[in-house]
Structures are given as C-alpha cells and as structure tokens.
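User: I'm putting together a teaching handout on how multi-component assemblies are represented. Below are the sequence lines for each component of a complex, exactly as they appear in our records. Could you produce the 3D structure of the whole assembly as structure tokens, so the students can see both representations side by side? Please keep the chain order the same as the input.
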Amino acid sequence: MLKVEDLHAYYGKSHVLRGVNLHVKPGEAVGLLGRNGVGKTTTMKAIMRLMPSASGHVTFDGAPLDGVDPFRVAPLGLGIVPQGRRLFPKLTVYENLCLGLAKDPPAEGLSDIFARFPRLKERLTQLAGTLSGGEQQQLAIARCLVMNPKMILFDEPTEGIMPKLVAQIRRQIREINKTGISVLLVEQNIKTAIEICDRIYIMEKGEICFEGPAEALKNDQNIVHRYLGVALR
Amino acid sequence: MYDLIGVLLLNGLAWGLIIALIALGLSIIFGLLDFINIAHGDLFMIGAVLAWTTVDVTGNFWIAFVLVPLIGFAAGCLIERGVMRPVENSPALSIVASFGLSLILQEGVRATFGTTPKRLMDPLGVTVELFGFQYEAYRLLAALIAALAIAGFFLFLRRTKLGTWMRAVRQDREMAIAMGVPADRIFMFTFGIGAAMAMLGGVVAAPITSVEFRLGLDVLPLCFIAVIIGGLGNLPGTAAAAVLLAVMEGLVSAFAEPTTARIVSLVVMSVVLLVRPNGLFAPARR
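Assistant: Of course. Below is the structure of the complete assembly, with chains in the same order as your input.
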C-alpha cells in the first residue's frame, strides 16, 4: 500500500531523514516509534509531500508520489491525523468535517461517520476550537474518514488526551483498521502502538533501526530499552 | 443645520460603504497572504478610470459594473503570479514590490489618461428631496450597490466551499493542503477577489468623485486605518470601521479642512491602537 525507499530530507542544513525505508501492506497497521526528534513527524510530512524530500521515493497504492502536487495526495486516498489535531478552530465542526470534499454531502451521506462519532452530530454548528480535547481528536479522525481514505497516517493520536479517553481512541483506530484501511501510527506511547499495530518500526537519528512484529517488542524488553530508553510496564 | 448634518451623514455612509468594499479586499489579501498591498488604492483608481473609459467608449455607464470587476479579477490573478509570488512570505518585500506596482499603475494612467481630473455625468440624473435638499439619487444607489457587494462577499465567504477553503487556508495552510485544498489556487483567487472588489469600488465611486491618476492616494490610508481600527483580520470589524471613519471624516470636513478630518482619523487610530490594540471590535483580551 505504502512504500518508502531511501528517503532523505533536510531542515535547512540539518539532515533529519537519512535514508528511511519502510512499507505498509494493504490492511496492515504499522507503528513507527522513536524518541523525540528522531524524524517521525518529518517522515509523515515527507510522505504527504508537505515538506520537500531531498531524495528517495514514496509509492502509494502502486503509484509514485514523487513530484505530485501536495494538495493532490489526500484525494488519492492517503489521509493524515496530525500531531496536535490541527483542526481549523474558527471553522464549524461541519465545515471542518467536509473540508476535503469538493461538495458538501447530503446529511445521510455522513450517517456512517455519525454512527461512529455520535458526539460530533450534536455539535455540527459549533466552532471546532470550542470542542474538548477528546472531541477534537474525534473530529480530526472523522474529517479524514469522510474522504474515504485507503490509508491513514496517525501522528501521536493519544498525545494530550485524558487517560480515560485513550482506550477509546485506541479502539477506534483498531476498528478503522479492521474496515480495511491501512494505518501508519507514530507513537510515543509504546503500549498504544503494540496494542494497535501488527508490525513496528523504530527510528533513531533519521533512520529505521529496528523492524519486527509488535509481539517481539512485548516479549523483548531489551529492544524497548535500547532504542526507546524506557521500560515497558 | 440638522438638515445639513443629515446630508453629510448620508454622504459619509455612501462613501464609507465604498471604502469598506475596498478595505475588505485589502484585508483579505493581507490576512491570507501576508501581502501588504500598497497598490490597492491604485486598483480602485484604475476601476474609476475604466468606468470613465467605458462611458467614453460605449456611452453606457452600467456596463462597467459587470466588465470592470471581471477585469479586476483577472488583473488580481496576474498580480498574484507576477508580483506577489516572487516575494512570498516576506511582508517587508511585499511593500516594496507593491509600491513599484503602484508607481507603474499611476504613471501608466498619467501617460494614457492624462493628468486632468475628469468628471462623469450623474448616471441616474435624478434627485430626490431629502432633509429639504435636492439629493442625487445615485449616491443612494451607490451606497446600496456597495452594501450589496459587501453582503455578497460575506455570504460567499460563509456559504460556499471556496469561501470555506479561503478561511481554512488562512487558519492553517499546511493542514488545508493535507486535506486536499489547492492552496496556491486559493491564493490566486483571493488576490483576484480583492482586486475585483477594489475596482468595483472604483466604478461605484466614479460618478461621485473626480477621476484622475492620484485617486488612490487619498483612499489607501483610509483603508489601512479602517483595517487597523477594525482589527487585523476582523472582516466585519473592518467594514464597520470604514463606515464610521468616512462618516466622521465627512462630518469634520464640513466644519474644517479635509486635512483636519484625516488628522482626526489618525488620532482615532492611535487611540484605538493604545487602548484596544486588537481593534475596536475585538473581544476583551483573554
């Protein structure tokens, strides 16, 4: 579904991605872990073509994304739920939800979304900036689903969310994955990643330094400790 | 005495709505693109000149209402590509680039249209009796057209997909692109709309002012003051401030020099900047 080959990128002079290689098979959920500042978010942005990559290739759904206009990536079926949610605070919930659609759908066209996120239906005319953190995350996921993506990139979806709601968001991502949508999940929270993902990559200094099934991480404390510097509780 | 004030208020209102139309164009271009368009007043002037030319060539003033905004939109798109795009993300350079454009537009008109101020005939040629005065009906129509254009602009911004996209790009350009919004085209379109609004303002104003190449010089400061008093990026605030300013300047200039009226505007702006730096209509600071 997604294939990233030898991806390099720079912020000014600093070489932040130093040859990233990863792939996600159709329907698969893959985690991308790593400490702060190793290039996880940059990898996502480079995949979405939101920042220029110096070299390397990204292939999505069999077609190269290299040289594609950034705004044409989402309509190909590649959505992103970005870090910090990045809603449009002064647009209404409804406007946020339908932003990526060329035409606003009739109300029944959104019934799937409302079945999954009933809270949003009650708040359609409210400004997105007035939603609670949990509701904002729901909206960030929902506005991505509205565009019928084949794959979604999640960038730290449980960051800054009340612990009570973290389990709910994990469950939602798993359910989305079960409908056949591939997932690439960037996480700081290893537990979330292990619970959602089939396979895990770990990044260090702009490169992938570990690849293996999520189970392996669960069973091998050494990997977790060596690359992430934390103990898995 | 009260009759005179009534007429002055009406004049101020008509002029204020025209200024609001122009200032809104200035504000969306600045708000979306961080482009400080010094040539915006000259686009207004070009609108008035084209209105005069339309009457000169076709003998029909009303054609200008359709034709000139279309020309304005096309010109705005060209300016975005040719003048704005090369200095993208640098408000300071945008001042230099648009100042250059301003000189080109003014001197271009001076070279072709001439330096003599020209007056258009009152296109309606009808007066109505108001407050005991014979009042040009066209001024009322001008106010109405400007008000309708402003209302149309806000409806467009609130009710259409393109308008929603314009607001989204303004709030978070990168995310808008990630959602599939063609931000580059939105920029061009925004500049086109802004220029079309300024030129439409020029057409509306042409019969109630004298048409000449320096027309924009007087209008631009008033627009900037309206944008600042209304609050940067606060579009309804900008429109309201423009009307208030024009009415105020109209009243003051009835009793004093026009220069004094402009001084009053500047003093009001300074006070607003000191007391409410986010604009007269901004909510109290959080």
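A couple of points students might notice: Chain B touches chain A at residues 161, 164-165, 167-168, 171-172, 174-184 (CB under 8 Å). Chain B is about 75% helix and 5% strand.
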